[in-house]
Write a structure and sequence with these properties.
heterodimer, A: 324 residues, alpha/beta, 12 strands, B: 327 residues, four-stranded antiparallel sheet, 29% helix
Chain lengths: 324, 327
């Protein structure tokens, strides 16, 4: 039986309205999932799907408007507003790997400084012990020999090397959960697979207990994620085992995402499998299914009633009126 | 009919110890042909695209070679003479093209600016053509009256593509036009380009690091490595029989929706330092098929069937198809 590390229970995040729209923006709408020991959950969706907001809630940078995070081992809840003292503990237990390795490292600081800071901060080591630990971390992310990298500054490293440093820094606090937010989208295609495998290996070695992998690329989820949750405008539309979702997508939005992946075998021919919305709808429905304005299979009920997530075979969850 | 001919073009960054980003590149683009230019970051593909449009800026400079577009030598023509040809004959769409829109002007007035600068057109004609190009990229005609900040990133990028079409240029150069965008938006732009092609004839130089994307769109692929062209081949045949080891590695690094298990591979190692003179084959340190001669002899670009390849090893392989005749 899979052991739950952190469960996310019905989190909702709304942001106050801007000048134009009076209603608050619902970035995340009642999303629940569990992070399991040794497993990677992939969060997949477009920009605006709420995937990054969920990642930020996990790290404690944002607190959910409703819902909570629960640590399975201790039973304690965290991430709620007004519990700032717990914030630090949350910071340590959840670490983040950022999308842009060029922006995530301070260009003025040496790699040694970037790595030893969290070690001294969270692990309460003295500076010589921290240096040894930093060297170990660099070896863990396969930047060898570590001595060659410690005194360098970010601009002296390639994008892939920098991202390894960012990963090492995330590991420095000995986190339980790592949130990897688009960790390879800024990297060259030729090194993406390698980086995803590194993250996989680190999890297998027990460098962390569980991982949340945030991406817009369903195919890359196959390398790293055991399970995938597909989000559309803050709503969970489909969730299941990665292979089963990729092999047999059920929600029309998941199918659109899969059909969007460039496919050299489809050369020159326009895409027909998913009826293609002529104009991308900017419309946000307040009732009914969020995907309805773009959905080729839309029915009357979709505009009035929000589809509930229903369990299908193999632990699949799908929220769609049209899927029977 | 050849529209663009690039001959032995070299581009340097800096003078003291220059980085030679583009090295003796020759390529042609035929009329109505879609050509894809692929390679890793730092391979010189964007530098080449900029140089073809003569948009290179210091410290970049063309040190040798020529670019001939529609019988005009763009390398030996001053900027002022070239100006009327921009937008009209050659237009450019950049990765951050959506940030190239003027934030304090409506989309409509930016379209008008482009058109009146280059042609004597009536306001009606401007509006008519603006609607036409917006329809091509499936963006609502209403955006004419909107400001850039009112549009999403994907819509802005499609507006910029529409803008590049305004004067029906013969050549459009697109440098990573979809890289900053979501998968679904990228798919929309890809579909737009395929459909526009059915309505209007133009040549396209599509620059991208994503070979899968390029293969789906273009007729012919040019693969660059360390500033050099290492392979030129029709997209269809390249997919089934890539010749250069680098192209093969790029193809293997593609995730394939149809393939099980997700075994896509990376390419270990890094490209050479472009400040140095290349000794032997630039790809040799990363090449799985490397032989002793690769370390010392610089491979020339040779014809293999209808393709061109810069590799001492694979260019000698027995061709697989029966229609391969060495030119």
């Amino acid at each position: 039986m899979d052991q739950t590390i952190l469960s996310v229970e019905g989190i909702t995040k709304t942001f106050a309205s801007n000048r134009r729209s009076r209603d608050p923006v619902i970035a995340v709408n009642n999303v629940s999932f569990s992070l399991l020991r040794g497993r990677v959950l992939g969060l997949v969706g477009e920009s605006g799907s709420g995937k990054t907001t969920i990642g930020r809630i996990l790290t404690g940078v944002e607190s959910p408007t409703h819902g909570s995070l629960k640590w399975a081992t201790t039973g304690e809840e965290s991430g709620q507003r007004g519990k700032r003292r717990e914030g630090r503990a949350q910071d340590r237990r959840v670490q983040m790997v950022f999308q842009d390795p060029y922006a995530a490292l301070n260009p003025f600081n040496s790699i040694k400084y970037s790595l030893t800071r969290p070690i001294i901060n969270y692990m309460k080591m003295n500076s010589s012990a921290a240096k040894t630990k930093a060297e170990e971390l660099l070896e863990t992310v396969r930047l060898t020999p570590p001595a060659m990298f410690l005194d360098k500054r970010p601009h002296e490293l390639s994008g892939g090397q920098r991202q390894r440093v960012v990963i090492a820094r995330a590991l420095a606090a000995a986190p339980k959960v790592v949130v990897a937010d688009e960790p390879v989208s800024m990297l060259d295609v030729s090194i993406r697979a390698e980086m995803l495998r590194l993250l996989r290996d680190l999890l297998a070695q027990g460098q962390m207990e569980s991982m949340l992998y945030i991406t817009h690329d369903l195919l890359s989820a196959r390398i790293l994620a055991d399970q995938v949750m597909v989000l559309y405008q803050g709503n969970m539309v489909e969730m299941g085992q990665t292979d089963s979702i990729l092999g047999q997508p059920m929600h029309p939005y998941t199918r659109l995402l899969l059909d969007s992946i460039p496919n050299p075998r489809r050369r020159g021919r326009p895409l027909e499998s998913v009826a293609f919305p002529q104009l991308q709808s900017e419309e946000r429905l307040t009732t009914g299914c969020a995907f309805a304005p773009r959905c080729p299979f839309v029915m009357d009920i979709c505009r009035t009633q929000r589809p509930e997530a229903r369990a299908r075979d193999e632990g699949r969850l799908v929220a769609c009126h049209a899927v029977e | 009919m050849t529209l663009v001919a690039v001959q032995d073009l070299s581009v340097d960054y800096g003078r003291l110890k220059p980085v030679r980003a583009v090295r003796d590149v020759s390529l042609t683009i035929a009329e109505n042909e879609f050509v894809g230019l692929v390679g890793e970051s730092g391979c010189g593909k964007s530098t080449l695209g900029f140089a073809i449009a003569r948009l290179e800026r210091p410290p970049a400079r063309i040190v040798s070679g020529r670019v001939v577009i529609d019988d005009l030598d763009w390398t030996n023509t001053d900027a002022k003479t070239l100006r009327p040809h921009r937008w009209q004959d050659v237009s450019v769409v950049l990765q951050s093209g959506m940030n190239a829109l003027n934030p304090v002007m409506t989309i409509g007035s930016q379209f008008r600016d482009v058109m009146v600068q280059h042609a004597s057109v009536s306001p009606d004609e401007v509006l008519q053509r603006s609607y036409e190009v917006l329809d091509m990229v499936n963006v609502s005609r209403q955006v004419i009256g909107r400001y850039p900040h009112e549009l999403s990133g994907g819509m802005k990028q499609r507006v910029v593509i529409a803008m590049s079409m305004l004067l029906r240029p013969r050549l459009i150069i697109m440098d990573e036009p979809t890289t900053a965008l979501d998968m679904v938006v990228q798919r929309q732009i890809l579909e737009n380009l395929k459909r526009i092609r059915e309505q209007q004839s133009f040549s396209l130089l599509f620059i991208s690091h994503d070979l899968g994307l390029v293969l789906e769109l273009v007729d012919r692929v040019v693969v660059m490595y360390a500033g050099q062209v290492v392979e030129v081949q029709d997209a269809e045949s390249l997919l089934d029989s890539p010749i250069h080891p680098y192209t093969r590695a790029l193809l293997r690094s593609l995730p394939d929706a149809q393939r099980d298990g997700g075994t896509f591979e990376g390419i270990p190692g890094t490209p050479p330092d472009l400040r140095e003179e290349l000794r032997g084959c630039a790809f040799a340190p990363r090449c799985p098929l490397v032989q002793a001669k690769c370390q010392t002899t610089s491979p020339p670009l040779v014809a293999v069937g209808t393709a061109q390849v810069r590799c001492l090893v694979t260019s000698q392989e027995v061709p697989r198809g029966s229609d391969h005749t060495v030119r």
